[in-house]
Design brief:
Two copies of one chain form a homodimer.
Chain A lengths: L8 H12 L5 E8 L9 E2 L3 H9 L5 H9 L4 H8 L6 E4 L5 E2 L6 E6 H6 L1 H24 L5 E4 L8 H13 L4 E2 L2 H7 L9 H5 L4 H11 L5 E3 L5 H15 L6 E4 L4 H14 L6 E4 L5 H10 L5 E4 L1 H4 L9 E8 L2 E2 L14 E6 L3 E6 L9 E2 L2 E5 L2 E2 L6 H16 L4 H4 L10 E2 L1 H18 L2
Parallel strand pairs in A: 6-7, 6-11, 8-9, 9-10, 10-11, 15-19
Antiparallel strand pairs in A: 1-5, 1-12, 2-4, 3-5, 3-17, 12-13, 14-15, 14-16, 17-18
Helix pairs in contact in A: 1-4, 2-6, 3-4, 6-7, 6-13, 7-8, 7-15, 10-11, 11-12
Amino acid sequence: MGRALCTDFYELNMAASYLRRGMTAPATFSLFVRRLPPRRGFLVAAGIEDCVEWLEGFGFDEGDLGYLAGLGFEERDLEALAGLRFTGELWAIPEGRVVFAGEPLLELTAPLPEAQLAETFLLNQVTFQTALASKAARCRLAAGEAMELVEFGFRRTHGVDAAMAAARGAAIAGFAGTSNVEAARRFGLRASGTMAHSYVESFPSELDAFRAFASDLPERAIFLVDTYDTATGVRRAVRVIGELGLGRRAGIRIDSGDLVAVSREARALLDQAGLTEVRIFVSGGLDEGDLAALVTAGAPVDAAGVGTRLGVSADAPYLDSVYKLVAYDGRPVMKLSTGKETAPGAKQVFRRPGLDDCIGLRQEEVPPGAEALLSPVMTGGRRLAAPPTAAQAVRSARDRFVRDVAELPSAAGRLEDPEAPAPARSAALEDLTAEVRARHQQAGGD
Amino acid sequence: MGRALCTDFYELNMAASYLRRGMTAPATFSLFVRRLPPRRGFLVAAGIEDCVEWLEGFGFDEGDLGYLAGLGFEERDLEALAGLRFTGELWAIPEGRVVFAGEPLLELTAPLPEAQLAETFLLNQVTFQTALASKAARCRLAAGEAMELVEFGFRRTHGVDAAMAAARGAAIAGFAGTSNVEAARRFGLRASGTMAHSYVESFPSELDAFRAFASDLPERAIFLVDTYDTATGVRRAVRVIGELGLGRRAGIRIDSGDLVAVSREARALLDQAGLTEVRIFVSGGLDEGDLAALVTAGAPVDAAGVGTRLGVSADAPYLDSVYKLVAYDGRPVMKLSTGKETAPGAKQVFRRPGLDDCIGLRQEEVPPGAEALLSPVMTGGRRLAAPPTAAQAVRSARDRFVRDVAELPSAAGRLEDPEAPAPARSAALEDLTAEVRARHQQAGGD
């Protein structure tokens, strides 16, 4: 699969040059989001587990090296690349934590060529997985406590990887299940789903379809009632629920129309038939705004499937993430490009209650009453702790999310015009920044 | 990997029910985009090759079946699923063709359970790959003929699959290369890239960095000039180009600032030094609007890297794609849900010159002067022709794109407020739709 070739070409150029020159002193790169998208007041860290796994398996195989030879890399470059493994150290903010702009999600310290070659993959995974988990968190907040959410995005995510990450990110943010069977298996999630319109259409009549499904799969009898006429569909569902004695195991799903009005009408029909415990499930192009509107209107919706707009984080499909060199060979460095200045040195994020954060230097002492968000995950190229199972990793991340989100300032959590907290910077970080800026401006002007 | 579990749970429920009931008559599903996003006047078909490959390898292995047993599927269901392979027929519009709303990109005919189980994967691949290729096509049109484009999106695509599809889709739409090394290998593309800001920062000075890179990799000496001060960076590049006699092999890259102004300043500095053939490459958050602005301003830009906003199709990260049952057991069917009505029967798209399209029924004769866009790709579960190499598939798709886009009406191709042509419908399709609607409304009212 060419795992090490999952990189941008310039990383290889730089690595080759560094290796020829023996520039293998430790470099620290910091991965963070510069600015949040306009409609994000917070982010939910995700993607770190995949980074650790990739780093553990990093290396070039024969096929990779043969391809690079064809691109013009010299024998000495190929020999040097052949011997590369990841031997460095990784610090990270654990998945599921709520984070803000400027806070390093990862910091990697390794011989410069190794650290450089990891850039593309690490940025890719952390950026998109954090974007998806953050979108899911907004949906979860919007839906209120009573409504159950299920992730439905597989058909429109950007590929299979993305589908797995969407299901996983949604689970971290408190979704109750996913339609994605492989993701359910892989991450120990609840697989959820019943029937499609095509099922109903495959039978001579809607009533035949409902009877068939409910007798074959009585435990999953959520009747999709809007293939033809929704009210008629609900009445037929009522009839089949009665015929088969399904009672509270059953539900209905509405996938089109004005969901507030239609869910009310459906609830009334169900209640009139004494089916007060039959649940109403809605779906169909929903996002956090639609969920909030259902809650505000008091629509009798018990559960919702959230698909496409979650699965691609439609209003913010990417984050302004970067992977910046902050130290090389013991020397803190920074970038001065217009509008893209970065702060130097290995960092730490100190969090006080209420998600009151301060970005400082890693060597600073943790201030009283604060906790340090970044902790070491790998050293010498290996994990510090045995890897969690995939399911454990998701459960732990969800627990962290639940704890953090409970402390989220309401202005950061609101859907419209959220105000993202701006982490403070420690005096030590400010001092170092001024010092390195002065030194660079001197070097830049030689 | 559980390839057959890369599906939504409801597909399995429906398949199990169909299998128990012997509902294995042929079903035809049509995959199309209902409406184009507001800023799209056309789409570029992509993702079909991955669908064919998936269908060829479709099947449940022991691990898959064991997992399904745990979800409550009965022994008879598992036995039936264990025997499933894809045995059907696939028609498709070839990759690279320009397509419009309502036109089936794929039509699959197979025993109902097989056809149902393919829904999620086929929708996923065609939707996102078509979205990415269509975004790339807009960039290619905006950049004009003189500017070369390179795909730079890997670090922000939604995973590795998506990165490969972004590079591939961009190549189909006429990009000259990609930064993604694995994609370059896989699809026979040009790998492109030079140095990052971190390279410059790893040396005591910018001048040292430029000298090092150019002496190590003289064939890739594109100097990134904006780490500190851009004009100073250009002057240093000029100095190193002269010192090492790089001449026309060299170039500079500008990744920040006002690209129109900075590229002009850089061009003037290069020209003053007699380096009129040294190329200027720009990058940094560009999309088709930025490319068009560079062209309009007459900025002296020879090549551009287009990354994130292409790689996630930022302004339209998904398409309103559907996979609809249009025939079952020889009987045309349709869905009547409010606002989601679909046309019945297996279809064909007849194209006259100027991309003047008419959607008709598959069995209709091709009208004089028209061509039929869908052609058979698989029958009996196998490809009709030997698979192309990955590189051939991209080249053929690019040739198709070049031919089609030359005929694209200008209103469909413009960047702002494009007008997407609305394909006509044949009389035979209109008649069948009326007939099936009447029959369904009768069935719906039983």
